[in-house]
What does this fold into?
Amino acid sequence: MEQIRKTSEQAEEVLEKISRPLKPYIPWVARTLLVSTFIEDSVRIIVQWQNQLMYLQAYRGFPWGVSHVFLLINVLTMLACSGLAISRRHTEYAVGGLFAVIVTQGFAYGLIFDIKFFLRNLSVVGGLLMLLAESLLAKRRNVFAGLPNISDEDQSKYVLLGGRILLVLLFVSFVFSGKFSMMRLVVSAIGGLSCLMVAVGFKAKYSAIVLVTILSVFNLAVNNWWTIDFNPVHRDFVKYDFFQTLSIMGGFLLL
It folds into this structure.
């Protein structure tokens, strides 16, 4: 047990040295990754505009004109709210707008009760909650700056709560969505362990770093959409998973 403790402390020191020069940039990178799935979705709607219109009108019963307005509002909302989130301006409105996009798209495309759609978006919603928690903490520090009754523990509980939600949602969505593979089993096991560690408040930050590293490798190895040329539909699904995983990684970096 003593040897494990020493090894853990040494690993923490190494991670701290590696991450120290990157700390000023990590929040910006985290927020950018977090909203990357929304940016990709807006670009995809623009590129596939006619196909999107045809699907909504032919298969979802949208009247001509209503489908145009719906897609336009979605694109503008995703781009505007993503920009606000990255720049840390009006974060509450940005989170609300992006959450509204998830819900409205679920109803519009008939996926709101689809278990795969639900599971895939659990982690993204968890990341948005992390973003909201970060904004609430920043505002509280500004409002109550200098007051002695605002403890570090009190300030950190929102981020900790968001981190727990994110990890649990990640674990649930990762285990129950997608095809079974040995790599998925390994990552799921580590995700479950990380959920437990964060739930008890033990080494949450370092668990997040390990998971970001593993998810990066998994994302490049499994969701390599740029290698798929033979099936455009399958390519879009894999691309969707790729950017959603980036969003999950962004949520972890906010811990």
In short: Residues 147-153 have pLDDT under 50 and may be disordered. Residues 212 and 235 are 24 Å apart (CA to CA).
